[in-house]
Specification:
By secondary structure, the chain is of the alpha/beta class. It is built from eight helices and six strands, in the order H-H-H-E-E-H-E-H-E-H-E-H-E-H. It folds into two domains: about 50 residues, RecR Domain 1 (Helicase, Ruva Protein, domain 3); about 110 residues, Dna Topoisomerase Vi A Subunit, Chain: A, domain 2 (3-Layer(aba) Sandwich).
């Protein structure tokens, strides 16, 4: 038995299909959209359609852009010989917020995951290899998550890039700043020891 009118049920289902949104959150979002004045609801729908039609991947780094190339690839001050490989566009934002990285990026749009049937051909790996083959890159930093899928993807790419003689590094992992060692798991402590450096 349907508790809500069909259009509302459809709207709830659309919100529930988004990642990280459960049925209750989807209902709250749908009711909020219904409570918007008509002008704001139209602006919301228009923003979705505009983003969908104008945002595409940068032909160089595969990050999202609405221009010919993304702002980072267009920036002459960036070190184009240093590429940081990330899984998703949101990871670029994380690095940019830190304001410590002056190189450029390459976005894979996912990681290899046999359980989810995501293989190398489903990612933007061939585009990365093409960039490296140009011979202008001195280092590739693998910045995928430190989990099984992220590590598998990083190792796969490392093997592909090995014949090019480019330096491939992996982000150091360890104890977060401000954390208490008592609560760190064994794997985190082991990686912190491996990644230690001289003071």
């Amino acid at each position: 038995m349907a508790y809500f009118p069909a259009p509302l049920e459809n709207l709830i289902d659309c919100f529930a299909a988004l990642p990280g949104i459960g049925k209750k959150s989807a209902q709250r979002l749908a009711f909020h959209v219904l409570s918007l004045p008509e002008g704001r609801a139209e602006a919301f729908a228009a923003a979705i359609m505009e983003a969908k039609s104008s945002v595409h991947t940068c032909p160089v780094c595969q990050n999202l852009t609405d221009g010919e190339r993304c702002a980072i690839c267009e920036d002459d001050r960036r070190d184009s010989t240093l590429i940081c490989v990330v899984a998703e566009p949101r990871d670029v934002l994380s690095f940019e917020r830190a304001r410590e990285f002056g190189g450029v990026y390459h976005v894979l749009h996912g990681v290899m995951s046999p359980m989810n049937r995501i293989g190398p051909d489903d990612l933007k790996i061939s585009e990365l290899v093409e960039r490296i083959a140009g011979g202008q890159v001195r280092e590739v930093i693998m910045a995928t998550n430190p989990d099984t899928e992220g590590d598998t993807t990083a190792m796969y790419i490392w093997r592909l890039l090995k014949p090019f003689g480019v330096k491939v590094t992996r982000l150091a992992y360890g104890v977060p700043v401000g954390a208490n060692l008592e609560y760190a798991d064994e794997a985190t402590l082991a990686r912190a020891l491996e990644g230690r450096r001289e003071m």
